[in-house]
Amino acid sequence: MYNDNPTLSGLKKEIDESKQGEVFFNEDPEGVTVAGSKHFYIESYGCQMNFSDSEIVASILAESGYHPTRNMEISDLILINTCSIREKAEETVRKRLRIFDKVKQHRPGTLVGVLGCMAERLKSKFLEQEKLVDLVVGPDAYRDLPALIANAEEGDKGINVFLSREETYADISPLRLGSNGVTAFISIMRGCDNMCSFCVVPFTRGRERSRNAFSVVAEASDLYENGYREVTLLGQNVDSYKWENPEDSSRINFAQLLEMVARIHPDLRVRFSTSHPKDITDEVLHTMARYENICKYIHLPVQSGNSRVLDLMNRTYSREWYMDKIRRIYEIMPDCTISSDIIAGFCTETEEEHQETLSMIEFARYSMSYMFMYSERPGTLAERKLTDDIPEGIKKRRLQEIVQLQTEISLQHNQQDIGKTYKVLIEGNSKKSDQDFKGRNSQNKMLVFPKRSDLQPGDYCYVKVDDVTSATLIGTIVD
Ligand code: SAH
Ligand code: SF4
Ligand code: F3S
Distance, CA 204 to ligand 1 centroid (Å)? Predict the structure, then answer.
């Protein structure tokens, strides 16, 4: 496929064909250059936190005169915001670097920077392994980017992977990239203090710290003023949010923050992610129930349905404890939907234990799940203390069984919505047809329905569900 001496258009084809991550762009979707300005291109991988961080990076770069573009061939700086969560995520990044290398050959002087979790995990090893990389910058060091870039322009490769106990970028107003103008993410905390034995995040993101509550509310209010109608509060473990006001030592927990954001305006929907089952409290559940605009949806990753495996994973809850939590959620909010993350084939998992994960999917009635094969990560507790002893073939088969069951449960879940009417926030055109809108209900299900000319993205409407697939509800607008 790749020709050794490609023309730029040949190169463009290769870039497009190999595109895997999300490419961000701003005002210049055609890749138009802004005279006299330098341009940066950024691609993001991994979780929403990374996407949110890319908007902080964009804001920092815009301040120092860089203009965003989605055309990497005209950019002076190519950035990739990376993820280390599974081996495959890292392989994808290395593939992308090969592509950037070609671009660099055509435009000598283009700088390539690696940001995010893989930068943090590999540190200076990156500069040794990947000759084309000019910058390696960890998640807490983005303020240093302009200085590192200036040095790199002089030929000095730059690295800053310092992890901070304080940095929350609270004062930086993110530059919304590739936004639909209706929904936005707000980072409310950084890092993670849990030590799930499979997980690399505590090593790549450092210690947990919560952002100033008033800066969160100010950012959400500002978004509302600018026409946005939904914010998602982000953190690896949002329920352990705690912020102490240095002025009067008063404390704000997650339930209180949620309420503060919900009170900005009844038309501003509030979502949050992710909840660790051990930390979500009745206070949070009651706050959700009290406010119509706090969406009735909880992403509550179980990881495994078996207590022994959960113990090995260091999740600090058992199967029974998790089931009680699920019962509690449905008791306080009967209309709430719950979703999950599930890992297949963790160290020493038996067939019986795997069956318990399957039965948990049925018990919890997840509307959907993110499902993965266990991937051993260097430096984690599991890598040091346990053996990754489930053969790939068995992991794959268990994952398939999980995916198949979840797809069935999702379909059943959606079928129960047929005939019901939901309040939907219109997000834009549906992927398949510009005659249809798409939008989500409070339960985070995506609905697709024919447009009505008096409505536009950012408006609410009521949609009656006529038909469903396992992933989407199909309906019509009703008055
Ligand atoms: N903070 C979130 C999850 C962040 S990572 C939480 O605690 O729920 C997202 C998901 O990736 C995890 O929930 C887990 O299911 C999966 N994951 C993390 N490490 C993994 C690994 N080593 N192998 C496979 N999946 C993993
Ligand atoms: Fe990883 Fe566990 Fe922290 Fe989630 S809570 S980021 S799975 S260590
Ligand atoms: Fe990946 Fe880092 Fe997020 S490892 S999942 S990008 S916190």
Answer: 13
